[in-house]
Design goal:
single chain; Arc Repressor Mutant, subunit A; mainly alpha; two-stranded parallel sheet; Tetracycline Repressor, domain 2; 2 domains; 2 strands
């Protein structure tokens, strides 16, 4: 994890309201993600990002007062992408192995767009207390989807044991994928196969214990 911690969550100077402004901000975030992925935190500068996004440095500063705020927005976009995967994943009608295959595949795909980004976010870029908070709104929603899936395969209402199981399963997925990103192994089919098998067996045990 990064040793630099911003005590409070950095916030944008202003929110884009018009469609054109939203496109401009998205270009900045995309450019920032590309720079972090290829050059790391050391090469992450507002001038470099503005140039790559095709906007003036003044336009960038209209929304992001500094690069710490920009990297916080890039991190939030990544977290939102992960939440979107879980929001779209429903265990209904899927066997445990089918659910595991889709979940692992979609999570790997989300991390494969800019593989180097996750090393920079995890190990180099500053993090806020909110991001590191295990009880943050993101963590509660994120784990909630795992709890729902586990309870589904146990065919019962979620209970305390399912929350523990959700922590174990989500940490296993996150840990394997993040370390694969660090090692440049996200495209390794064997890594995906083994992680899918692990998650499938974990959920399959729930069915067998019925």
């Amino acid at each position: 994890m990064s040793t630099r911690v911003a005590k409070s969550q950095p916030t944008m100077r202003k929110e884009p309201r018009q469609a054109r402004s939203r496109v401009t901000v998205e270009l900045m975030l995309e450019a920032g993600a590309r720079v972090l992925s290829s050059e790391g935190w050391a090469g992450f500068s507002t001038n470099r990002i503005a140039e790559l996004a095709g906007v003036s440095i003044g336009s960038l500063y209209q929304y992001f007062p500094d690069k710490v705020t920009l990297v916080a927005a890039i991190r939030q976009r990544h977290l939102d992408d992960c939440l979107a995967i879980l929001r779209d994943m429903r265990p209904d009608g899927l066997t445990a192995s089918e659910f595991a295959d889709r979940l692992v595949g979609d999570m790997i795909a989300a991390h494969s767009i800019y593989p180097g980004l996750h090393r920079a976010l995890l190990d180099e870029a500053p993090s806020s207390d909110e991001y590191l908070n295990p009880n943050s709104a993101f963590e509660r929603e994120y784990l909630g989807y795992y709890v729902t899936a586990i309870a589904h395969y146990y065919r019962r209402a979620p209970n305390a044991a399912d929350h523990v199981a959700a922590l174990v399963m989500s940490d296993a997925i996150d840990g394997v994928i993040h370390n694969a990103a660090r090692r440049g192994a996200l495209k390794d089919a064997a890594v995906r196969q083994e992680l899918t098998r692990l998650v499938g067996l974990y959920l399959g045990d729930a069915v067998e214990q019925e």
